[in-house]
Amino acid sequence: MDSMRIKGGKPLQGKIHISGAKNAALPLLAASLLTDETLTLGNVPHLADIATMANLLGQHGVNLSLNGHHQNNGSGGRVMELRADKITSVTAPYELVRKMRASILVLGPLVARCGEAKVSLPGGCAIGRRPVDMHIKALQQLGAEVALDNGYIHARAPKGLKGAEIVFPMVTVTGTENVMMAAALAKGETTIINAAREPEVIDLAQCLVAMGAEIDGIGSHKLRITGKDRLHAARHDVIPDRIETGTFAMAAAITNGDVELIGARLAHLHSVVELLGQAGISITETPQGLRVKRVNGLHGVDVMTEAYPGFPTDLQAQMMALMCVAEGASMITETIFENRFMHVPELRRMGANITVHDASAMIRGVPQLTGAPVMATDLRASVSLALAGLAAKGETILNRIYHLDRGYERLEEKLAACGADIERVREAA
Ligand code: UD1
User: Fold this and answer.
1) How far apart are CA 299 and CA 320, in angstroms?
2) Which of 97, 169, 176, 327 has the fewest CB atoms within 10 Å distance of its CB?
3) What is the pLDDT of residues 17-46, one digit of tens each?
4) Could you tell me the distance, in angstroms and rounded to a whole number, from the CA of residue 174 to the centre of ligand 1?
5) In angstroms, rounded to a whole number, what is the distance separating the alpha carbons of residues 204 and 168?
């Protein structure tokens, strides 16, 4: 397995191109199942999770092609064409779902289009139980019969789905996306109450509209979807990744650097910008994106993760790394996932002062972290250790970096281009 070697202490300086959003691209790829015509997606990031989704769609019968030519904004984003003129299999096998929970996103489209889907039930996961009960219940409310067969969710709606009122007891991002896609091909009207409002959900809604879906209330808690008999071809560009943007903003902050994030959108990051502002970091708009630098030291602030527009759980670990070297104390409370402090013991090994009580971590800033061999069990925890390594004295070896490759495109190249001393160490074959 590859690892990453980081020598800390270099302030990041320069420009970083922000890639297309992983969590927007995944449901957009799944949306190709809804039509027999071609869906063309631009700014698709080059990531292991995208490859997993592409494999999954391929085995459902979707023809995929990469146009190869990179867009000339330097982000490396690619154009992908997906055509599901014939669905050859409605089964999402264990081997692929096991690799990536977001595989559950094919459930809604397959039932809606084919009247049947068999999706392996995602298992436990490093950051919590993460059940899919709300996805299943919503599909049942849309008229699907759902059984659990040998570890598979088997959903059937031979006569098609029917519109219904779906009330989510808590905000679910992929749950909202699954229902939105299913409802786009259901008979009649579907209302989703307590819908997720994440920019990635809005991006999917806008693409579905371009494909001929009728969706009212986009960006609000209440979505109204009028089902159509069929959807058609469309072309859509994936939004820039707000989590990658926040991660690099914190990388600039933790190294006392000055970085321009090309293509980043302020509108998707208000809660993050506000909090980083309180911590002493300025984030300002430039003609091409956002500029990040420290203006006023680095101070401890309290953080609570929330559904959008609140502070994202996917930036919690990175924020904790930053707070490890801030002046004063910081309390970070995780409200979305019950077991998302896996980075804490590793940060401690680098000299961080952190105590955890239930869902809250108290971080007392230290003047400097020290490099250490570390490893992480999930994507965002891994990158938080990379940030800590960039600021630490001496060498950090980050193991199990396949987690990073799931969600960060060319992380080491982007950081090295801004002066970081970081390299991938390939394991000898
Ligand atoms: C998505 C993101 C993930 C992010 C998360 C929260 C993608 C591909 N992934 O994950 O990066 O961290 O949103 O912003 O977009 N829950 C249930 N039952 C369900 C579904 C969810 O209890 O059926 C719970 C989850 O365990 C969690 C909470 O609801 O505690 C929110 O999860 P959800 O928004 O569904 O996360 P994902 O869509 O899986």
Assistant:
1) 12
2) 169
3) 999 999 999 999 999 999 999 999 999 999
4) 6
5) 18
Report how far Cα 347 is from the mean position of its chain's Cα atoms.
Answer: 22
Ligand 1 touching residue 315 (CB < 6 A): no
CA distance 220 to 235: 24
Tokens representing residue 223 in the block: 């979505």
Are 173 and 196 within 8 A, CB to CB?
yes
The verdict on the CB of residue 135 being under 6 Å from ligand 1 is yes
Q: Give the whole-angstrom CA distance, residue 177 versus residue 26.
A: 10
Q: Determine the residue of 47, 121, 174 to mutate for testing ligand 1's pocket, defined as the one with the most ligand atoms within 8 A of the Cβ atom.
A: 174
Q: Nearest Cα to 65, choosing from 44, 90, 48?
A: 44
pTM of the predicted structure, to 2 decimals: 0.96
Per-residue tokens: 79: 């154009």
Ligand 1 in contact with 314 (CB < 6 A)? yes
CA 167–ligand 1 middle distance (angstroms): 16
Q: What is the mean pLDDT of the chain?
A: 95
pLDDT band at residue 429 under the 50/70/90 scheme: low
**Closest atom, ligand 1, to C-alpha of 337:** 30
Looking at residue 129, its pLDDT comes to 66
Instruction: Tell me if 235 CB under 6 Å of ligand 1.
Output: no
Instruction: Count Cβ atoms below 10 Å from residue 72 Cβ, excluding itself.
Output: 6
Whether residue 125 lies in the annotated active site = yes
Q: Ligand 1 atom closest to Cα of 130?
A: 26
One-letter amino acid identity for 272?
V
Q: Are 114 and 127 in contact (CB under 8 A)?
A: no
Segment among 28-37, 71-80, 177-186 with least mean pLDDT: 71-80
pLDDT of 338 = 86
